[in-house]
Amino acid sequence: MRPVSAQALLEDLPKLHDFGRGLEVGGLDKRIGKRIITEVTRYDAPRIVETGAGASTLLFCCLEPQALTSIAPDASLRERMLATARERDIPVDRLEFLCEQSELALPRLFALGERFDVGLIDGCHNWPAVFVDFCYINMMLPVGGTLFVDDVQLYSVEQLYLLLREQEEFEHVGLDGKFATFRKVLDRPILSEWDTQPFIVRNTVTTASR
């Protein structure tokens, strides 16, 4: 592991995202970064997948994963990220960057038999993309795996967060601002039917007959 390099990155986060207002850091901050470091270093050379990319990608690279798959349909972000990695001597030899929508990439990774120890959902935050990301990452995540969910302040992401808070398949590890951490504790690649999901049952006004 390279915690010193990871810490150095958090002290000087690169501006990689172009949201039309000039380059910005994005959603990663020191608090979230420290949570990522703590959780990822629990594993010995983990396999990591993230939807979305940026400073988090470079942070994962600093932690020497066995493999890192980052999915984001932004070629210019990829080039800025790789240029920053060269400038800061951050290894990217284990990084596979898929420049496409996660809704297309994740099903293919699953079909290829890919498995990951850590997953970060931080790509497209619309509905249903965030749930598609979860469904496929969950199918590729083993018991003991870590799931990060960023931007829970957004309604679509918040609904996933609230659902998982009550699902027995996952343990809620913590919430750092807008960044949630879960641990998978039951081997269920597909969540059970709606009437076994406490969040759905409680928020269903009328229970439909089958």
Task: Give descriptors for this structure.
seven-stranded mixed beta sheet, alpha/beta, 9 strands
Notes on the protein architecture:
- The structure is a single chain.
- This protein is an alpha/beta fold and 210 residues long.
- The chain is 38% helix and 19% strand.
- It has eight helices and nine strands.
- The chain has helices at residues 3-11, 30-40, 55-62, 75-88, 102-111, 129-139, 155-165, 198-202; strands at residues 17-18, 23-24, 47-51, 67-71, 95-98, 118-121, 146-150, 170-176, 179-184.
- The chain has a seven-stranded mixed sheet with strand order 5-4-3-6-7-9-8, sandwiched between helices.
- Strand 4 (67-71), helix 4 and strand 5 form a beta-alpha-beta unit.
- Helix 1 runs antiparallel to helix 2 (30-40).
- The chain is globular.
- It starts with a helix and ends in an 8-residue tail after the last helix.
- The model has no long low-confidence stretch (mean pLDDT 95).
- What's the count of strands? 9
SSE series: HEEHEHEHEHEHEHEEH
Q: β content, as a range?
A: 15-25%
Structural class: alpha/beta
Number of H- or I-type helical stretches: 8
What's the helical proportion of residues?
A: 25-40%
- Please give the order of strands in the largest beta sheet: 5-4-3-6-7-9-8
Instruction: Give unreliable regions as ranges.
Output: none
Whole-angstrom Rg = 17 Å
Characterize the main sheet.
Answer: 7 strands, mixed
Overall pLDDT confidence: 95
N→C terminal distance: 52 Å
- 3D shape: globular
Give the topology:
Elements: H1 3-11, E1 17-18, E2 23-24, H2 30-40, E3 47-51, H3 55-62, E4 67-71, H4 75-88, E5 95-98, H5 102-111, E6 118-121, H6 129-139, E7 146-150, H7 155-165, E8 170-176, E9 179-184, H8 198-202
Parallel strand pairs: 3-4, 3-6, 4-5, 6-7
Antiparallel strand pairs: 1-2, 7-9, 8-9
Helix pairs in contact: 1-2, 1-3, 5-6
